[in-house]
């Protein structure tokens, strides 16, 4: 494809250099945004009398026909074009002749690309937010069925205190809800239209930036032309929000992987979301969850790529910044792919409450409750803690649990113990008793789920 800057240059570009320099392979996905941005720009040029109204009209019609042809497949992208911006402009000129050459008046590719990436991310983050919302809704639905499913909560991956499966799941709902709000924050800050920044120093033409912003659905315009073309915080912020989201998803996957191991067997994944082994006939592997956990590294890598690429750049535009796209696009693509696969995996898994309860019945997760029982009878907590520690050590030696330990043995350690201790350490009592805001008592978790569903409905 002939170069736009042929006037300044006397030699053709080397083919390998052209390929190296080109971004068309990955920025062609912004074709729709590029064309819409150009239509708004041309409309403004016409309205301001910077180009003739008839030419503005012809340019807008030409751009619309290019978009239609791209979408119908009648026009394909030229892989030798330097980037999507050059491709669209060249195609317009091929169709309209000299009129097409007027489109780039009062504009640079620097402000054009800054606009296109913002518009592309605005659309894509919207899709990610919808998916994330569905994920939180799904978690709420599954949780509603398990507010009485007692399981052990863990610290250090050691059985710690009694909770319910719903309470555990809802912890993730809270995390993903915050991810949702982080994405909204990032897109709100990105909501400034950069066209008019020109290459770096604005333009001498009497443009109307507010009009372009309005046409493209931005709530304002960037306030500094240097910043307008050299800011990529919005990519970094989105990649950062996506990295946090993936980190949450990865922790969830790690637990799913543990839960479907024979060591836990708290859940069983649907056959459609697991794979077999090529050699071991008994295997059912949680590959999907593992792959999501693995892909988290990619997204974090994308964030690091963006930060590293930007950290040494002098103002304003530098070609390094072309590297923003593959990183931020990959982060978006990966999150979409992972969340889309994760939701049905979660929906179709079988929960095994008996196994959760069986595991909860071992591991002395009611030891704190047993100590609290003594505290309620007047013993200072530290003394109660020590007494129950003695009982637990005894049980471990004899292979018993607190529930089955005879009352005499309790009394040997502390005479405040009476028959009502068995009710106090019953796992259901322990869960129900944790009746604080944010706690695992079924009524509290129900309230948590309802509050979340309400927040989601108005999100
Ligand atoms: N393809 C370029 C990019 O993605 C567009 C901007 C080019 N601007 C320039 N001055 N070379 O960054």
TrEMBL record:
Residues 7-301 form the Fumarate lyase N-terminal domain. Transmembrane segments: none annotated. Pathway: Amino-acid biosynthesis; L-arginine biosynthesis; L-arginine from L-ornithine and carbamoyl phosphate: step 3/3. GO terms for cellular component: cytosol. InterPro entries: Arg_succ_lyase_C (IPR029419), Argininosuccinate_lyase (IPR009049), Fumarase/histidase_N (IPR024083), Fumarate_lyase_CS (IPR020557), Fumarate_lyase_fam (IPR000362), Fumarate_lyase_N (IPR022761), L-Aspartase-like (IPR008948). This is Argininosuccinate lyase. GO terms for molecular function: argininosuccinate lyase activity. It comes from Merdimmobilis hominis. Pfam families: ASL_C2, Lyase_1. The lineage of its organism: Bacteria, Bacillati, Bacillota, Clostridia, Eubacteriales. Its main location: cytoplasm. It is found in: Cytoplasm. Belongs to the lyase 1 family. Argininosuccinate lyase subfamily. Keywords: Amino-acid biosynthesis, Arginine biosynthesis, Cytoplasm, Lyase. The keyword DNA repair does not apply. PROSITE patterns: FUMARATE_LYASES (PS00163). GO terms for biological process: L-arginine biosynthetic process via ornithine. It catalyses: 2-(N(omega)-L-arginino)succinate = fumarate + L-arginine. Its EC number is 4.3.2.1.
């Amino acid at each position: 494809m002939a170069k736009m800057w042929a006037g300044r240059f006397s030699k053709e570009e080397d083919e390998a250099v052209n390929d190296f320099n080109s971004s068309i392979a990955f920025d062609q996905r912004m074709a729709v945004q590029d064309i819409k941005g150009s239509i708004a720009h041309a409309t403004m040029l016409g309205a301001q009398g910077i180009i003739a109204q008839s030419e503005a009209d012809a340019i807008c019609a030409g751009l619309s026909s290019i978009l239609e042809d791209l979408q119908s497949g009648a026009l394909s992208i030229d892989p030798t074009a330097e980037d999507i911006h050059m491709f669209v402009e060249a195609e317009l000129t091929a169709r309209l002749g000299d009129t097409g050459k007027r489109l780039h008046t009062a504009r640079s590719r620097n402000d054009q690309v800054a606009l296109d990436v913002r518009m592309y991310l605005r659309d894509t983050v919207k899709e990610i937010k919808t998916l994330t919302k569905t994920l939180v809704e799904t978690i709420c639905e599954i949780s509603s069925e398990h507010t009485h499913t007692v399981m052990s909560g863990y610290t250090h991956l050691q059985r710690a205190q009694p909770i319910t499966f719903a309470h555990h799941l809802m912890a993730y709902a809270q995390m993903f809800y915050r991810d949702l709000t982080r994405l909204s924050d990032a897109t709100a800050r990105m909501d400034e239209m950069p066209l008019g920044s020109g290459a770096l120093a604005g333009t001498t033409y009497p443009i109307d930036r507010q009009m372009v912003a309005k046409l493209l659905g931005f709530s304002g315009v960037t306030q500094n032309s240097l910043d307008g073309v050299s800011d990529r915080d919005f990519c970094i912020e989105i990649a950062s929000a996506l990295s946090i989201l993936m980190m949450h998803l990865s922790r969830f996957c790690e637990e799913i992987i543990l839960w479907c191991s024979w060591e836990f067997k708290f859940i069983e994944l649907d056959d459609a979301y697991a794979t077999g082994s090529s050699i071991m006939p008994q295997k059912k592997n949680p590959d999907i969850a593992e792959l999501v956990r693995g892909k988290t590294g990619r997204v974090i890598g994308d964030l690091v790529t963006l930060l590293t690429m930007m950290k040494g750049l002098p103002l304003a535009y530098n070609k390094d910044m072309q590297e923003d796209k593959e990183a931020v696009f990959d982060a978006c693509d990966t999150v979409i792919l992972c969340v889309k696969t994760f939701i049905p995996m979660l929906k179709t898994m079988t929960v095994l409450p008996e196994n959760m309860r069986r595991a909860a019945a071992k591991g002395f997760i009611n030891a704190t409750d047993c100590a609290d029982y003594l505290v309620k009878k007047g013993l200072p907590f530290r003394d109660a803690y020590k007494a129950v520690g003695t009982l637990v050590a005894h049980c471990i030696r004899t292979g018993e649990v607190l529930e089955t330990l005879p009352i005499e043995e309790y009394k040997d350690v502390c005479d405040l113990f009476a028959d009502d201790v068995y009710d106090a350490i019953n796992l259901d009592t322990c869960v129900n008793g944790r009746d604080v805001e944010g706690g695992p008592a079924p009524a509290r978790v129900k309230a948590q789920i309802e509050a979340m569903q309400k927040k989601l409905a108005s999100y």
